[in-house]
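Usage

Read records sequentially. Each one opens with the input sequence:
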Amino acid sequence: MKKKKVWLLTILVVAVVGISIITGHSNSLQAVSPLGKDTLTMITSPDYPPYELYDTKGGDRQIVGFGQIVGFDIDIAKTLAEKLGFKLQIMESDFNGLIPALQANRADFVMAGMTPTPERQKNIDFSIIYYEAKDTIVAPKGSNLKQPQDLSGKKLGVQLGTIQEQNAQKIAKKVAGIQLKQLNKVPEVVQEIKSGRIDAAIVEDTVAKGFAQANPDLEFNTIPSEEASGSAIAFPKGSSFVEPFNKVLQQMKDDGTLAKLVTKWFSQNTTANPASSTPAKGGLNLDFTRILPDIPFILRGIPLTLLFTLLSVTLGLIWGTILSLLKILGIKPLTWVANAYTSVFRGTPLLLQLALVYYATPQLTGYDISALEAGVLTFTLNSGAYMSETIRGGIQAVDKGQSEAAMSMGVPYWLMMWDVILPQALKNILPALVNETIGLLKDSALVSTIGVVEILRSAQIVGANKYIYFEPLLFAGLIYYVLVMGMTLGASALERRLRESE
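and closes with the structure output:
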């Protein structure tokens, strides 16, 4: 028996040692990984075809964990991931939010057709150039705007935060009379041309080609570049990923992989709808058949919008109730704090609050707050400030005899507020609360600026992919209207029910 036990113990020890050796060998292999991380986060702005765009077929989207963003930059990123052995996670944001996201360590790198300028290089690092691009002047057909000198006295549109904006500023210093107008997205710039608010725009040639093909009333002319420009990958300052990325990019250049991707994405012709292949007539020239295949994608934004609104309203109501009680307790320090809080959140723009919560939270707390969490938190804090005043007014509108009667019966203050005062106050302020909820539903579109793909963002993505503007936005407006009307009817039914119970 003792011999058997010795043998069993020996086998067990050998097994443990063997497993530890295998595990240690595996860990040593992982330790020599060129990047030292299994998963890297890439952030992009997927409204810039053919560099990055959503594949809207089937209604999928990336932000909630399903669907995919496709494009030239995405294919390069996937190749880099394959060759360097890391998993790729993709986030999205508006273009002017990409660099702040890097600086806040929300992402490991940016790919968005970004050009390494001296100003940007002061704050972030860049890879080698992987694609050379040219600027073009986009203008109404027949404008004859072919050279920078032709833009004298013209209103010129550019996308905010892009190399085209900087190049336009340089042109404006040399050519007299140019007025610059900065907009957030290229589709907005193109629409300004079509509406006649600006005379022309400077857009990258590959993107301008798509818009010109989808809008036959536009033309574009390439302008000579005074200095080398092109697209590169952006990294946080001092990133250790620059060197390994550069090695793989150079390999892709040498073995023809990049050339194949360029041919794949930049030699494609934009498929124009038959209705849009003829010169545009007067008016908006609407054709909703162009967005029919993408309607499921836009509709997939409804659950996310409703979830965001429900969470914000519920948490905002709770927080607003707490603030209102602090204001009426009669304890001066608490009253002062509640009033100061309300003044700050009512006195500053909601969009500013959203940007601060989303970009500052990781740096201040170390917690990588998601875009949806940042939106809910911001709207809760903001709506709580507004609701606190509404609830306070509702509480003070309740007849004082109610509280006096409860106190004379020995009912504790908090129980009196919960069982007697607040139910009556909420009944009185129900219309105001419904208005606040409707406002939150519509204001939820603001979270699109930090990458949440709700209804409006979905419509903007479809517009960018199709090189159109009005049709997807009008359809999104119809969705919002139906949701608001449904909410209004529900609130009216609730009010009638409450009046019947009186």
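Summary fields computed downstream for this record:
- The longest strand covers residues 39-44.
- Residues 470-500 form the longest helix (31 residues).
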